[in-house]
Amino acid sequence: MYKVLPTPPPAPVAPPKPKGPPRTLTVTGSGDILIHPALWGQAKDDANSGGPNFAPMLAPVRSRLSEADYSICHVEAQFSDPTQPETVYPRYFVHPNLAKGIASAGFNECSMASNWTFDKGLDGIRRTNSALDRVGVRHSGSAATKASSNRIVINSVKGIRIAHISYTAPGESPYIPGADWAINRQSPEEIAADAKAARAAGAEIVIVSLAMGDMGSTETNSGQESAVKTITAGGDVDFIIGHGSHTVQPAEKVNGTWVVWHGNLLTAFFPDQLRMHEGLISRVKFTEQPDGRFAAAVSAYPVLSVASPYREIDLAAEKCDDGVPARWSEAYNATAAIESKAIKSGLQLAKPCEG
After folding, report:
1. Cα 209 to chain center, whole Å?
2. Per-residue pLDDT of the chain in tens (355 residues, 90 and over written 9)
C-alpha cells in the first residue's frame, strides 16, 4: 500500500530584484580635421615649448566634446616627419603635434580612412597611429602593418561594448601595391557584413564612419544614398558619421538609423567657399531598450571655422548678449536650412547663443 505524502508547502519566492534604469551612452561625431597651410601658421603662432600647438584652435569646442561619454573625430591627413612638416599640395600632411590637440579637445577615438590616408605611405600611417596611441586616442580605419589590420575593434565604454569602424569610398585614396589591408575602403555590402560581424563578436552599439560625397556639394549624391541604404538594411548599424564632401549635407533616418553628414570640423578653405568652413558636431544619446538594443536620439551643434585667429566656434555655446558677427548668423541659418527636413524627422538642432 502506497502512502500518499502531504504536498509540501511552496518554497518561498524571493521578490524580483528591482530593475535598474536603462543603460545610456552619449557619443559625439564630427567632420574633417583638415590642416591647410593657414592653420599651420596658426599652430606656429600658438606654439609652446613643445612646438606647433593645435590645441587652441579646437579649444572652443572642448566643452561640447568632453561632456559626452565618447567623442569621435576624423583625421583627414596623415602625420609627417616633424623635421619636414609643411603641407604641399596635392599631398596633405600635418605635424604629429596635431595628436596632442585632438586629445586636448576631448576626443577619445578618430576615424582614419580618407582620401589622404596613403599620402605619406605606410610610414605616414605608422607615424599617425603611433602619435595617437601616445596621447591615448584610439583609431579605426587604417593600419601600418598587416598584423595590426584588425578591421573590427570593440571597446568598452561605461561597460557598454561599442564598435566604431571607418571607411572611405573605393578609389578615393592613392594606391600602395600589396597594401589593401592598410585602409578600410570596402563596398557597402562589405561594410554591412563587417557590422554584422561586430554584432556577432559582442558589440552592443555599432557606429560607422563613412567618407563619401561630392566636394563642396550641400546635397548627397546617389552613391551616398545607395550606400547608406545597403549599410543600414540589416539593422546592425546604430549610427553613421558621414563626412567627405567638406560641407554639411541633409541628415536623414535610413532604415531606422540616423545618418548625419558633418562637413568640416577645422579647416581653412578659400574664404569664398563659405559652406566648407561650416560643420556639425552630432551628439547621440543611446538608451538601452527592453530587448537589449539601443535607441538613438540625435542632436546637432553647428560649428564654424573662423580666422584672425583661426579657431573653431561652437555657435550654440557662444554667449551672444552683445550680438554676433553677421557671418556667424549666416552660417547658422545656412546649416538650419540644410537640416530643415531632418529637424522635422526628429533631429534636434541646437539653438544659437544658448551659452
Report:
1. 6
2. 333 334 445 545 544 444 679 999 999 999 999 998 899 899 999 999 999 999 999 999 999 999 999 999 999 989 988 887 666 777 778 999 999 999 999 999 999 999 889 888 899 999 999 999 999 999 999 998 998 887 888 999 999 999 999 999 877 778 888 998 999 988 999 999 999 999 999 999 999 999 999 999 999 999 999 999 999 999 999 999 999 999 999 999 999 999 999 999 999 988 899 999 999 999 999 999 999 999 999 999 999 999 999 999 999 988 777 778 999 999 999 999 999 999 999 999 999 887 6
Q: How far is CA 233 from CA 65, 68, 84, 218, 228, in A?
A: 30, 28, 45, 25, 8
Q: Look up residue 313 and give its three cell numbers.
A: 566656434
- Report d(CA 277, CA 271) in Å as an integer: 8
pTM above 0.85, yes or no: yes
What letter would DSSP give residue 221? -
User: What's the domain count of the chain?
Assistant: 1
Rounded Cα distance between 244 and 260, Å, is 12
Tell me the one-letter amino acid at 333: N
**CATH number for position 333:** 3.60.21.10
Instruction: Print the domain residue range for 254.
Output: 31-349
Answer whether residue 302 is part of any domain. yes
